[in-house]
Design goal:
By secondary structure, the protein is an alpha+beta fold. The protein has a single domain, classed as 2-Layer Sandwich (Heat Shock Protein 90). It is 16% helix and 23% strand. The protein has one helix spanning 33-43, and strands at residues 2-5, 47-52, 59-64. Strands 1-3-2 form a three-stranded antiparallel sheet. A hairpin with a 6-residue loop joins strand 2 (47-52) and strand 3 (59-64). It starts with a strand and ends in a 6-residue tail after the last strand.
């Protein structure tokens, strides 16, 4: 498990942040970054999630890489 924690204003968890060509707020870019990250994670059998922090402001991005079966 890898977690990236920030202290920003958080995210709107009601929106599909992984949808292609979606940008929220006054942001630049094509809106493909999270979509490509999620697509790559799915291809590698990795789980990636975004959620607001419970204790403070900010967001937690989690990446779960399962152990290989022998």
């Amino acid at each position: 498990m890898i977690k990236i924690i920030d202290e920003g204003k958080g995210i709107d968890e009601n929106k599909d942040l992984f949808a292609p060509f979606k940008r929220f707020g006054n942001k630049s870019g094509a809106g493909l970054g999270l979509f490509l990250a999620k697509s790559a994670a799915n291809a590698l059998n990795v789980k990636i999630t975004l959620a607001n922090r419970q204790e403070n402001m900010g967001t937690v991005a989690s990446i779960f890489i399962p152990a290989r079966k022998k």
